[in-house]
Design goal:
By secondary structure, this protein is α/β, with parallel strands linked by helices. It is 42% helix and 15% strand. Strands 6, 7, 8, 9, 10, 11, 12, 13, 14, 15 and 16 form an 11-stranded mixed β-sheet that branches. Helix 14 runs antiparallel to helix 15 (388-399). It is globular.
Length: 461
């Protein structure tokens, strides 16, 4: 983009990295957030999100002259919502100006000839674009304080990145050496974002060939889990199930052999609380520090650095990992003692899996009763259940595209573990149990390695 002359208050299109230009407004930066040295840039607050960042002047364009051009080349619901937010903002700003002029005329005063005021960051109309629960100053603290702490009634705490971190290059990476074990659908995106944000990462994967791409991107190669844990200050693991998680720690050349006093181990796999308790005990018995941090999301969200991280265990490890969590996710929550994150993750995935099975059931019932499946989807996406998840999964089904974004076999595993957790708590889970049977049928139809939306095929065979 060509350099332009802009000032505070101007509406712009700003480009960050590989992401498309996004509508925003140049605002005054917080007093304690310094401009990057040697760069001509403006501080931009983006519409339709909580994102803000220093953007180089050559990556900015004025909003109005380039509006039509940008709308033609950019698609997607989030983008359209951001454009709508700008237009609503302009209408409100114009309404305020007209009201102000009207009051002046009623008193016999000459109407102002000043140009339309562009509202400042703390004005009412711009603040309406933000999350109402967000404190005005908390999302614009310096890098050393770029975390928003929210104490909840339950006693849990969330650390939320001040920006959607995959599109903000201003994260200061920890100087600790990071290890990562497991380069599957989720792990690959996480490692990619850690590297992009400047972390020093050593990788290991059971299938060694998967490491090659990350070595080319700057990662180091560990020969065994034990070697990675020994070489690194903080080691993350993200594997498929409880058995794989245990084997990685307790097996031959496993993580436990590389643990020394002060070493940190973070289990990101979605497993049962009992597995977490066992792993926590063996790691801490060697003087290590343990944190569980399963992630809510999909392959796409992992690639985009927009995961939600649920953490529990050693709070100091959670704080040491803040730059890592900012790189891989949009929000992270600290839920207390080890095991709580596993419980919460299983509940979330139980709901997601049951919901997906219900959507598939609705689509097949529509077809069986002579209704248009596309019309069913169109109606669904205009109602209260409208979401990116519903739209994407239904489109996958209608197109017959079941490329995995989250493996069907993994959601069935999560349902099974959630049902077992319910049994141990003497709490009924009949909806999850019914959904689990549908996924088991889909697995019997060789859908295990397809996306969770392939549960649809359990209803048509």
């Amino acid at each position: 983009m060509a350099a332009v002359h802009l000032r505070i208050g101007d509406l712009v299109w700003g480009k960050l990295g590989r992401y498309p230009p996004w509508p925003g407004k140049i605002v005054s930066p917080p007093k304690d957030l310094k401009k990057p040295r040697g760069k001509k840039c403006h501080f931009v607050k983006f519409f339709g999100t909580e994102d803000h960042a220093w953007i180089k002047v050559e990556q900015l364009k004025p909003y109005h002259p380039h509006k039509e051009e940008m709308i033609k080349i950019n698609k997607g619901k989030r983008f359209q919502q951001a454009v709508d937010a700008v237009e609503d903002y302009l209408k409100k700003a114009k309404g305020k100006e007209q009201n102000s002029e009207g009051k002046g005329d009623s008193k016999g005063k000459k109407a102002s000839n000043k140009p339309l005021k562009i509202l400042e960051e703390d004005d009412e109309d711009l603040s309406a674009l933000k999350d109402p629960s967000e404190k005005p100053a908390s999302s614009m603290e310096p890098i050393s304080k770029r975390l928003k702490i929210i104490e909840e009634v339950t006693g849990s705490t969330s650390i939320q990145a001040a920006d959607s971190t995959a599109i903000n290059g201003s994260i200061t990476p920890t100087d600790k050496r990071i290890g990562f074990l497991g380069l599957g659908l989720m792990g690959s995106g996480i490692v990619s974002n850690l590297l992009k944000m400047g972390h020093v990462v050593t990788v290991w994967n059971r299938t060694a060939e998967k490491c090659d791409l990350f070595i080319q991107e700057g990662a180091r190669l560990g020969r065994t889990p034990a070697e990675v844990a020994s070489m690194c200050d903080i080691t993350f693991s993200c594997v498929s199930d409880p058995k794989a998680a245990r084997d990685l720690v307790l097996g031959p050349s496993g993580v436990l052999q590389g643990i020394r006093p002060g070493k940190c181990y973070i289990e990101m796999s979605t497993v049962d609380p009992e597995t977490i308790t066992e792993l926590s005990q063996v790691i801490t018995s060697r003087g290590g520090r343990f944190l569980e941090a399963p992630v809510a999301g999909s392959q796409q969200l992992s690639n985009d650095g927009m995961l939600v991280i649920l953490a529990a265990g050693d709070r100091t490890v959670y704080e040491d990992c803040s730059s890592c969590f900012q790189a891989m996710g949009k929000t992270s929550f600290f839920l207390g003692e080890a095991g709580n994150a596993a419980r919460m993750m299983l509940i979330l995935n139980m709901v997601q899996g049951s919901f997906m099975a219900t959507i598939a059931e609705g689509l097949t019932l529509a077809q069986a009763t002579g209704q248009s499946q596309q019309t069913f989807l169109d109606i669904l996406c205009q109602g209260q259940m409208a979401s990116t998840f519903v739209d994407q999964k239904c489109q996958n089904i209608l197109q017959g595209n079941f490329k995995p974004d989250y493996y069907l076999k993994h959601i069935q595993k999560d349902l099974r573990l959630a049902i077992s957790m319910g049994d141990m708590a003497n709490h009924p889970t009949p909806m999850a149990a019914a959904a689990n049977e549908v996924y088991k049928r889909a697995k019997a139809l060789d859908q295990s390695d397809n996306d969770i939306s392939a549960v649809y095929r359990a209803y048509i065979h």
